[in-house]
Amino acid sequence: MRQKVRIAPSILSADFARLGDEVRAMDAAGADLIHIDVMDGHYVPNLTIGPGVVRALRPLTRLPFDVHLMCSPVDGLLPAFAEAGADILTVHPDAGPHTHRTVQLIKSLGRKAGIALNPATPVAALDHLWDDIDLVLVMSVNPGFGGQAFIASQLDKIRALRARIDAGERPIDLEVDGGVNVETAQACVAAGADMLVAGTASFTGGPDAYASNIARLKGRP
Length: 221
Ligand SMILES: O=C(CO)[C@@H](O)[C@H](O)COP(=O)(O)O
Ligand SMILES: [Fe+2]
Description:
Elements: E1 6-9, H1 19-28, E2 34-39, H2 51-57, E3 65-70, H3 78-84, E4 88-91, H4 99-108, E5 112-117, E6 135-139, H5 154-167, E7 173-177, H6 182-191, E8 195-198, H7 200-203, H8 210-217
Parallel strand pairs: 1-8, 2-3, 3-4, 4-5, 5-6, 6-7, 7-8
Helix pairs in contact: 2-3
Active site: 37 (proton acceptor), 177 (proton donor)
Binding site for a divalent metal cation: 35, 37, 68, 177
Keywords: Carbohydrate metabolism, Cobalt, Isomerase, Manganese, Metal-binding, Zinc
């Protein structure tokens, strides 16, 4: 693989009845971040996790919390997630009218700011944001659910983003989310991704399989 990749298991695929244990198990298994999918039943047709859950999980691990907000409007939710223990707050530019203002709000809360690009959202959506963002999240499925198939056309977008990030002066993480498994992980890293979200592929097989799942996603046998 091209470079060291970090794996962010999405707890959307965890056993919600044992969520704390699941987060601890993923930490012990070698995960690099914990990805938390926040869905509002409006921007996407699913309803998931609020700041109370993030706050409850926060003492259980020192891994960064990578909070992916599929919410519209989102600005009013950001302070609560920051206070609850989010490290990265990632928003969708099509979910609100003033994404630059949203990014400024995230920075004012002292958190890293990410922008998520849906499969149909072009790289140009970032044109006015490059100076302020810390992460770009390429959605390789349509947002809303775990367990969907990887949309291969997004590999070209990852390549274009890698070229743009490498041409810039600031470090910006390039994360891919949706349908990531051992095979698609390799393609994403070859295209330039340095962070991979994996829900199904991380949690499949139960806790005894987590370490091997993470290792294989990192390209180890
Ligand atoms: O944001 C999302 C879906 O909207 C993701 O984070 C999924 O939760 C990833 O799940 P898998 O596709 O890896 O099962
Ligand atoms: Fe996500």
